[in-house]
Inverse folding.
């Protein structure tokens, strides 16, 4: 009888786990969207706004700066909302791990921008934005979600007593 009970409960647990993952992905997406607006807005502000723009002709440096600011925004959102039940008690260690994973994600985006801008010669603002903020973002985001779940937000909260 115990085996039959487990077989009946297994689909329910699977559905609950899938629903929790979908909810977490949705929160990750919202946090990511906010960080994306910060990243793209600051990248374009530094690269193309002003006379002359603050970082005119330096798209890699502009991307590093914009990603740095967006990283802090995303860490706060992910720590206190997306992964709030799995955040580490040691904030400094968690932030360092987060920065390492974000740096790898940044390197993915920078490599896309570098190939497009310097190797292929696509130097327009549109080309820079597509390579860094579309292609690089998608690849970097997929890596970061996996890495955050696997390495950063791994703390198991104590079960609550009813």
């Amino acid at each position: 009888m115990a085996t039959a009970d487990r077989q009946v409960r297994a689909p329910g647990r699977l559905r609950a786990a899938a629903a929790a993952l979908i909810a977490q992905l949705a929160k990750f997406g919202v946090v990511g969207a906010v960080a994306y607006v910060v990243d793209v807005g600051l990248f374009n502000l530094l690269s193309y706004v002003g006379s002359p723009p603050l970082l005119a002709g330096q798209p890699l440096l502009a991307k590093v700066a914009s990603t740095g600011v967006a990283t802090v925004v995303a860490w706060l959102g992910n720590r206190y909302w997306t992964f709030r039940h799995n955040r580490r008690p040691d904030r400094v260690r968690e932030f360092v791990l987060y920065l390492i994973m974000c740096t790898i994600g940044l390197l993915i985006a920078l490599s896309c921008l570098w190939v497009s801008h310097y190797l292929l010669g696509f130097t327009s603002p549109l080309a820079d934005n597509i390579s860094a903020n579309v292609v690089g973002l998608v690849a970097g985001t997929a890596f970061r979600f996996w890495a955050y779940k696997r390495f950063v937000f791994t703390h198991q909260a104590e079960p609550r007593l009813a």
Summary: The chain has one domain: 2-152. The helical segments are 2-48, 59-82, 91-119, 125-152. Residues 2-152 form one domain.
